[in-house]
Amino acid sequence: MKDLDAFINLRELQMGGNELKDLVIHQDSNVLSNLEEIYLDNFTLNTNILQSIGVFASLKTLSLSDCGLIGPLPSQGWCDLKNLEALDVSENALEGMLPHCFSNLTSLRELDISRNQFQIPLSFAPFANLSNLKALLSNENKMVLEPPFYTSILKFQLEAISLSKCITSQQPNLELPTFLYYQYDLGYVDLSHNNFSGTVPTWLLENNTKLEVLILMGNSFTGPLSLPSAPNSNMSVIDISQNKLQGQIPTGICSTFPHLRRLFLSKNAFEGNIPLCLSGMKYLSFLDLSNNQLYGKVPEELITKSLAILRLSNNNLSGNVVPVILSANGVQHLYLDGNNFSGEMTNVDVSTFEFPYSLREIDLSNNKLHGKLPRWIGNASFLWRLDLSNNGFEGSIPMEFCKLNWLEFLDLSQNNLSGSIPSCFNPPNIEHVHLHRNRLRGPLSLAFYNSSSIVTLDLRGNNLTGSIPKWIYTLSSLSVLLLKDNHFYGEVPNELCKLHSLSIIDLSQNMFSGPIPSCLGNLSLPMQTKKTLTNGRTIPSLTGDGFTKTLVDYFNPSSYIEEVIEFTTKSGFLSYEGDILADMTGIDLSCNNLTGHIPPELGNLSEIYSLNLSHNKLTGVIPSSFTKLHQIESLDLSYNNLSGEIPNQLVELNSLEVFSVAYNNLSGSIPEKAQFGTFIENSYEGNPFLCGAILHKSCSKTDSPSTISTVSEDKGEDGLIGTYDFCVSFLVSFVVALLTIFVVLYINPYWRRAWFSLVGKCITTCRYSNVGKFLTYHIFKRYV
């Protein structure tokens, strides 16, 4: 067994609480008493370890983050660590109130109990005696109210506090914890996502002149944005986004916070023009005024050399956007989407401008731009992401776009683009291509041949023709293939099965024919693929060197452009993004001319969430192997020529929410157990030989094709009895009719004479007819 001092430094060693306890017992007491730091992050430990940890008398730092600790904290052992200065038990499943012995940790300076299930009183009484406490992180715990008579005097003066997501209820008029009124040394405050109401607490800034970071996002603060009476030259980050603030952005914000580096006022109800004074803030590097009601033009002076990220999305801004782009020297990320910018981007003399080579990302989507795509975009050779979707651009994709060698993300969807995709367009780093809902034509371009970096290829809703090329397998990273609503034809190639990263396939509304490749069942449909664009957010945390006060990267996303995938499932057209997109898997081959049986191998797609084979010409039975689709939520096999019964094994699909086999030739009874008891009648209509309570047809009275055949055979076996009855009935009827005629002729002489006269004429006619035929026959033979 390793010595304890060696063990403490082995971060990846798996050891439970009991093993550590045994190790502690057999060590030299001098070794135990001299240890000052223990880091067991990401271990699998038992909560009882905290009862054994008290033997480390000189311990100053204890980090047990993400160790699987559950239940309440023990009330002995670890509370004896009188020298402990930093404690991190974040990201566990600890719960309940903090024990009374917690007040014994009088040397504690840094405490991180984030992302647990503790109940923290609003008075923060458990921390009252921790006079040396400087940093407290309690994110994602639960703050609770106390009896009104309960009071406590807090002895600490914090420098940093983070209480994000501690109040999940929608309780109205919820005020800030009162102990904050008596804090004067705060440099970092995060009270985000708590539904606090009232006006913005300017007293918090006035009481704490050292305050550098104030995060109040995701609350319910109302009214105009008020500012403190005195300037604060230390303030670096202000985030008051996602509140209910109104009115204009005060122009005094620039002089009140002259050294501001990051300002977030998004998702409020601010109106009016963008304050011109913001252009004079020489330290401002990140400005987010998105999702408000701002109007007017974007001041060109706003684009300063210090500004790296400018986000003005989803306002009512208007005017010509080209000067804003061409003056963005120093700007790396420019988001102007969701506004009223209009005009042509080509009707500009760009020869007098030098394209800003700092630009890495441009988002002009959802505006009113029109005309042809600007060729001068090709000069942005270092551009990573470009989004011009949902405008009125027309014409072809310029050949100059082939110069964008660093491009990773391109979205030109929902315009009026025509022509073919340039064959030269093959950026070596391209990952996400969105060209859907245009008027592009021609076969699938060689532009994508051997593009091993492509993750998403979205070409839906165009006029593309031809077949899926055999070289599709060269797109080795392809995860999302969307070819819906085009004019593709031919068979679905087996080469698709070689794309081991595929997780979403949509080939619907085309003219594909032939069988479904059975090898599709070999796809692993990976759950974690690079389908999303990641955003990064760094928050303070406890480290071996103490609390991280430097917040240069407090909010520095790699991109605000999101990867959104639209896919038809659960009888609806849904959009997937973020973490949901990362987990989504599905195959849609509907509305084609596919024939043959459904391959039983598709039952191997155990991770698939949606499978749509409707509106084809498929025959045969529903494979019983579908019972292995354990994750499936939507299964649509309607409008085909399937026969046989619905396999009873499908009742084991507990995740199934939407199911349809309408308009086939299915027969037999409908399963009614588990999820199948929730499906509506429309799921089965158009199958005349299906029966069950949902169709209001009793299976005992319903004739299936097999039943009809049996009935016919039964009638055949009884055929002799039916013939005998018929003969007897006919003979009796004939005798009765004959006797009736004789009786009538005997009684009525007039009818008798008429009858004999009729019989005589018939005999004469028959005789002359036969004689004539005889003479004609002999004359014909004689002369012929």
UniProtKB/TrEMBL annotation:
Principal location: membrane
InterPro entries: Leu-rich_rpt, Leu-rich_rpt_typical-subtyp, LRR_dom_sf, RLP_Defense_Trigger
Name by which UniProt lists this protein: Leucine-rich repeat-containing N-terminal plant-type domain-containing protein
Keyword tags: Cell membrane, Glycoprotein, Leucine-rich repeat, Membrane, Receptor, Repeat, Signal, Transmembrane, Transmembrane helix
Subcellular location: Cell membrane
Keyword Transmembrane: yes
Membrane topology: Single-pass type I membrane protein
Ranges in a coiled coil: none
Pfam families linked: LRR_1, LRR_8
Family: Belongs to the RLP family.
